[in-house]
Amino acid sequence: MPKSSPLPHLSINVAMSADGKISTHGRETFALGSSEDRRFMDVLRARSDAVIVGSRTVNLDGWAIRVRDAEVRRSRLNRGRSPHPLNVVMSTQLNLPPNCQFFSYPRTEKLIITTREAPKHRIRRFEKYAEVFVLPASRIRPRAALRELQRRGCKRILVEGGGELNFSFLSQKLVDELYITITPRILGGRTAPTPVDGKGLLKNAQVRLQLASSRRHGDELFVRYRVIND
Questions:
Q1: 93 in any annotated domain
Q2: I need a surface site. Which of 48, 204, 214, 226 has the fewest CB within 10 A?
Q3: Whole domain around residue 25: which residue ranges?
């Protein structure tokens, strides 16, 4: 079912272990998925005008959001698009590492969405690396962020987490599709991050899904759900 307002089409993409974890309890940085998962990630990125990550994701790994597969990137270029989608990070107070690849990679356009809680000296600092958009609020409001991206011409947006960011969009009923790669691993850990963290939802507010497709590649399972936003 459609969202309650005509916002950009929003998808979430996440790889998780078979027991529903996206990293270890130590939040180590490593690839959960296979080369096929990474290629499919590039396909989803290539379809998108912008890709959003949270500040914790940038702090943990700091990679630029790129279409790495040359064939997929060429297909995007042939459609008259830039080689990579707009890189967007959402951060309430701009607690970000300015020297990471996310900001230093020269071939991506970068946007930081922050709030009035961000110190002015940090805003001035990050304006050297990216465009900074300040929301007139004390916390990130996902709907307002999408409105700003819509104003910039973004029609298809991909969210790549982490779990707190995914929760913020799902809990506000802003997500259209959910792509999950289930990988053949068990990580465990009561404090290990999951695809959707945050404070959680009670039964009357749960997000319901409709299975759109699934496919197996080796020992991985690729699942696509439509989100029922009624």
A1: yes
A2: 204
A3: 9-228
In a domain, 1, yes or no: no
- Asked if residues 127 and 133 have their Cβ atoms less than 8 Å apart, the reply is no
Question: What's the average model confidence in pLDDT over 146-167?
Answer: 97
Structure tokens at 175: 């997500």
142 close to 12: Cβ distance less than 8 angstroms: no
Beta bridge pairs of residue 132: 112
Domain count along the chain: 1
Q: Exposed, middle or buried, 113 (CB in 10 Å: 0-12/13-18/19+)?
A: buried
φ, ψ of residue 209 to 5 degrees: the values are -125, 155
Percent of the chain with pLDDT over 70: 98
What CATH number is given to the structural domain containing 44? 3.40.430.10
CB 129, CB 89: distance < 8 Å: no
